[in-house]
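User: ok so my PI wants both of these folded by tonight, can you help

Assistant: No problem, let's get them done. Here's the first:
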Amino acid sequence: MKTLTAVPFLALLLCADAAQAAKIRVPADFPTIQAAVNATSGHWDVIEVSQGTYLEAVTLANKDELTLQAKNGHKVIIHSEGAIPLSVTNSRNILLKGLRLEGATFDYGLNVMFSTDVLIQGCTVTGSGVDGIKAFLSDRVTIEDCTVKWVICDGIDVDGDNACVLGNTLQHIGWNGIVAVGTAHTIDGNTIKECGERGIWLGAGGAATGGALVVKNKIDGAWQDGIALDTGADAATILSNTILRVDDDGVDVASGATGNVLQQNKVSSTKGDGFEVHCLNGTFCKNKVKRAGDDGFWLAADAAYCTFLKNTITSSLSDGFQIACTNSAFVENTAKKNGGYDCFLSAGGLSNAYINNKFGTIAE
């Protein structure tokens, strides 16, 4: 996936004084990657690593304007014995490209801390004992076209502002596929398969998470929810995602989450509800739910001031819409062929506005 916003610092790199930049080769110039890193001057130096397995734990600390990359077409493995294979700390304008990170049986595969403008591109992380890729209190971190698999905890975990998680593949993740805390994150075009908990989790643990864009991701197989918006997740746009085969709800929007827009998402074959909604001021438009194991939309009593427009629910095992929310509007929704009622209204649900909906069966 190509994106201009993902590489805010690379334009500067092209303008850098070529006379100042050094190209350092491993192992031709230095036998280890860490030795090459230690030798860099901070003027857009490039470390190019040739094919091989490097038994070391590499740390970029207090480094600026540095590229660390595998030589084109070469398979470069950084294999640590239990430690973090690659760490970036207190650094800025860093590019990491084409590296394979293994061996962190008790730690992160790749860890970025207190850093800014870091691009992680085309890297592979396997076998981590904690998270695959972790960005902690770091801004403008982009993780693009990477593969993360067979990790014990989260696949990708970002904590900061303006992270971009683009076009990655995550598989066999012990906990959550992608976790995001902070503001203005973009999570676009990722494929997430077989997670022990959630596919994507915004506002983990109730942490403030505002203005996220979650678009065109595919989640296939999670033991909890496909996409979860926790209490702190506000003003997110959840657009055109596909969610399949989850053991709980396709999308869960928690109480306290406010002002989120969920549009044109496709949810099918859940064991729980297609959408479980507890939020305030949410907008749900043109979503499609098929074969939910419980209700297509379960709208709890703590949800209010929401808008439901042109959503379609078919073949849910229980009700299409089960409505207990208040002060909300239902316009041109369709529910049919559901195992219970197409629309079940509790006492609270009677207070909402209903306009031009197509419900085959209704119960109050």
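One down. Here's the second:
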Amino acid sequence: MDRLLHTRHLLPLGVLCGFALMDLLGGRDTVVLGLLVIAPLVAGSVVRRRATTGYAVLAFVLAALLGVYDRQYSAGAISSQAGRLFGVALGGGLAVVACDLRQRREALLTRLSAEAATSRGVLELAATLQRSLLTDPPAVPGLELAVRYLPALQHAQVGGDWYDAFPVPGGSTMLVIGDVAGHDVSAAATMSQARGMLRGIAATVPASPAAVLSALDESLQRLGMPTLVTAAVAVVTPGGDGTVRLCWSNAGHPPPVLVSAHGTATLLERPAERLLGVAGPAPRADHELTMAPGDTLLMYTDGLVERHGLPIDDGTAWLVRELQFLVGEPLERLCDAVLTDMPGARDDDVALLALRVAARR
């Protein structure tokens, strides 16, 4: 560090000495002492304020002394010399001001860089946490499961969208798709809490999606978590004839889409039920249907169908058409195609959870 500071002083010192020698070696008829003002100006860009002030004073003193050598204090030259000295003094003052502004800017940049590094560290930690929570689905005999997650493009690389799939007592599998309001570390932290609570509740509450959502809603309100959460929870139970019983409940979340093996896509819309985290009890209902071999269920967050300035119904209609077109595709390829073909600019997180009943052999 000391060596670097010494190296920085070489430039203004070199300028100061160079112009002083030029004036001396050029003879008394060559008056270039006014150029000494360049030394503090150079110093202002490479050294600190105190050193710059020193170079400004030194340049003024040298200019005054060289004026004696150049006979600039005679009656005919004194006014010109006074102008030169004023210019050197003014240049030195401006150099000090410029140096002060430079140091403030450097201090600001240092602080902003430190804050950015801290923010990056927090975001990386949150992203690691989120990736650890968004795990691969379990292997379930007779079912295919696929998941996808894309962070928002115009926000932090973490958010509140999540999916989950895990076994529950009785041989069934619970599927969850949820969305916590926000696109930041706070949303990701709330998401992890909601996900953990839901898993714990599902292990103790009978496999009723409505009951699980009601218990989660009550827990969020008791904890006073200041955010809104939407979620859809489904339980799939294999039957003995290759079919699957689907039971689901929806707390303010976009409705899942059921695609039959024959290519008919149906939006599983039911009477709207309240979001999680809103004060007061909310009645919730389970809905049931039977899925046949080859049928596909897609659960998703609103980032898939919402676009700025467009009604969400337009995005939902696009999704239904897209799924009808992709009905024959393998499940993994279907998920990739849906994300690739999204219309318009995406500015929200997207989470997908797809299930397909294995075809009978």
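Residues 218 and 281 are 8 Å apart (CA to CA). The mean pLDDT is 83. Good luck tonight!
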